[in-house]
Amino acid sequence: MKSFIIFLLIISFKSIIAFGQGLFVNFVPFLTEKCNEEPFGIGFSILSGVCINNLGSFLQNGQKTSSSWYFEITEYEKSTIISGFNYPDSDCSGFPEVSRFVYGVECVNSPVIVPINATFSGYDFSSYYTHVSLSKVPMFPDDSVVRGVYSNADGSSDGSGDTCTFDNFVYGTVITNNLLIKYQFPFEYTDTYSCSSNGTAYINMCEENEKCLKKNISLECNSDESNGHTQIFCS
Ligand SMILES: *[C@@H]1O[C@H](CO)[C@@H](O)[C@H](O)[C@H]1NC(C)=O
Ligand SMILES: *[C@@H]1O[C@H](CO)[C@@H](O)[C@H](O)[C@H]1NC(C)=O
Ligand SMILES: *[C@@H]1O[C@H](CO)[C@@H](O)[C@H](O)[C@H]1NC(C)=O
Description:
This protein is mainly beta. It has one helix and 17 strands.
């Protein structure tokens, strides 16, 4: 009986993969090509099968780019292929740039999901590696600052309920503990993200290495944004 249930679970997981719906594509950053030490850098966990905007605005000073992403999961000759389509327009139209990952060959040179004009604890984005995985719930490395974006589909009939759960999770931007992001433009400043031992998310912003301001950026589920809820927390 037990093996029958497991068999059914595998079947349903397979069919979800085949339709490319409802799975999360997780990008976990590492400094070396084995992806086996402590995660370090910027990562994402992104729902497949939906058009996603503003993936990077959190780290681009709120500056909105018109480009959008769509992730699709397909089977090809017994391999699971994760395709990321980066469209020039916000509604996933236009001619996309395509990145493909074979599920199982998981440690790759970091794909540029979002161009951020900065260095990350002294490294360029391109010197990072990324572990790519699929899961039914979003996954983040421990002890990281996560900004989650959730859809408004919250299950309450009048739409008034503020819920941020894995059921309406759309994407998360993940910054590992103590990552220092150094921007040169329009002036030189740094943002360091951290998690305190009791799980509060902080940013320490410094101008020219002197004037610093440390702020609590933890945010409970809020619906200020017209097209969804956001939440900032430590994983
Ligand atoms: C990126 O930063 C450099 C300085 O490091 C600046 O010269 C350049 O204009 C910036 N590019 C954009 C697109 O903001
Ligand atoms: C978390 O720890 C900080 C000091 O590190 C303290 O100021 C704050 O009150 C604590 N917060 C909670 C919710 O326990
Ligand atoms: C940080 O901010 C959150 C949300 O406003 C609040 O719930 C929490 O108590 C704050 N924590 C600290 C340590 O100030």
